[in-house]
Amino acid sequence: MSAETSTPSDAVELTSTSAGTYSPDNPAPVIEPPRARTSRSPKKVSRTNFEMWAWLFMRLSGIVLVVLVLGHLIIQLVLDGGVSKIGFAFVAGRWASPFWQLWDLGMLWLAMLHGANGLRTVINDYAERDTTRFWLKTLLYTATVFTVFLGTLVIFTFDPNIQ
Amino acid sequence: MSTATVDNPHSAALDTAESTASHLITITLRVRRFNPEVAAEASWVDYELQMDPKERVLDALHKVKWELDGTLTFRRSCAHGICGSDAMRINGRNRLACKTLLKDINPEKPITVEPIKGLAVLKDLVVDMEPFFQAYRDVMPFLITKGNAPTRERLQSAEDRERFDDTTKCILCAACTSSCPVFWNDGQYFGPAAIVNAHRFIFDSRDEGGEQRLEILNDREGVWRCRTTFNCTDACPRGIEVTKAIQEVKRALITRRI
Predict the structure, then answer these.
(1) Between A and B, how many CB-CB pairs are < 8 A?
(2) Res. B229: pLDDT tops 90
(3) Which segments constitute the 4Fe-4S ferredoxin-type domain (chain B) (predicted)?
């Protein structure tokens, strides 16, 4: 694909330097459309439903996240004196209850996977070269796994008596 | 006194009759021109024309080609909104030049005419349609049946016909596909037009290849890339609800897989 992308600009360069010298015997170079869909382009039908599940996950996690995130924001920033109440003791008090542990765990996993999948589609849309695409996705998946792992670890190993 | 009252309307009518050109207005047609054998870059060229506001953009293009500059290149066949040859970007929107009246697109300002986006420009307003038609061929837009062909017509109820009536109207002008931001960025996406034509057979009660087409559209470059921006529905000169058709294919995939 990267080779194809560079062809049109080369062809146009060539054309501009020798303008007007083309004839039926010496035709102008064919301009390849960038990343064209031709009969030769690879037809790798994936046969998995991954894209469908990813699409469904975005819709369903979005609905759940509206409740989780809005609830989180109201509890943290509006109720009981707002943002000034937040401190180590406040977090420790909430995470003493398994309900809030599960709430925060659900919010962490859903928000991270929702955001990562959104960025994956953005990379698929805008990264032109396969190598760029590969490295951006590697970076994205690494960051996602790291953040999810670290957040989960903190939620379950949180020690309110830490010195 | 009586002669004066008769004279006034008569002279007004006479005025319009005498100046037959009075209904013509001056328009500026700003065309995005590109000739790879002359210059590497495309450029805007303005044409001042005397046109009737009830004429179409295609008539203005004809006037340029026939009277001012014969090198202007564009596609048109039937010139009546059926063949789908002259889709172009007029004032920033994809339309058929043969269905766009000058009076409807503010002839006071320069009217910009560009080739449709997302496909390689060959010359002036002519683009390479091959990727578009390859995507169309890939969804197998023909009747697929099993067993022997019947000795008479394949009958269908009015309700079954109504199910896919909207998507039979497609004229393959590429106005929808070339208005899709996903297609602009990734030419591998099937695009709205191919999905519309797959929809036309997936929901046809006589067809038995629906599962094969759904399999193709379930792929990485299939319906799941649609971002429901509704550009395709806005662009369709036939008024097909394109985004709705794409969503119906998505729904069919989900309900048949789960």
Answers:
(1) 86
(2) yes
(3) 160-182
Asked if residue B76 lies in contact with residue B58, where contact means CB atoms within 8 angstroms, the answer is: yes
For residue A50, what are its two tokens?
């991954």
Report the alpha-carbon distance of residue B159 to residue B165 in Å, rounded: 10
Q: Where exactly does CATH 1.20.1300.10 map onto chain A?
A: 53-157
Per DSSP bridges, beta strands B126-127 and B121-123 are antiparallel
State the complex-level ipTM: 0.76
Q: Are B178 and B131 in contact (CB under 8 A)?
A: no
Chain B residues with CB-CB distance to A52 below 8 A = 218, 224, 253-254, 257
Q: Classify B22-127 by CATH class.
A: alpha beta
Q: Which residues in chain B have their CB less than 8 angstroms from residue A35's CB?
A: 186-188
Task: Kindly state the greatest CA–CA separation across chain A.
Answer: 86
- Cα distance between residue B163 and residue B252, in whole Å: 13
What pLDDT was estimated at residue B37? 87
Q: What confidence tier does B1 reach under pLDDT thresholds 50, 70, 90?
A: very low
Element (H, E) at B44: strand B43-51
CATH superfamily for B130-257 is Alpha-helical ferredoxin (1.10.1060.10)
Kindly provide the b/e burial profile for residues A4-19, where b requires at least 16 CB atoms within 10 angstroms of the residue's own CB. eeeebeebbeebeeee
Q: How confident is the model at residue A65 (pLDDT cuts 50, 70, 90)?
A: very high
Q: With 60 as the cut, is the pLDDT of residue B194 above it?
A: yes
Residue B24, min C-alpha distance to chain A (Å): 39
- Split at pLDDT 50, 70, 90, the class of B51 is very high
pLDDT tens readout for residues A92-112:
888 888 999 999 999 999 999
Min CA distance, B76 vs chain A (Å)?
22
The residue written with tokens 């406040």 in the block is A90
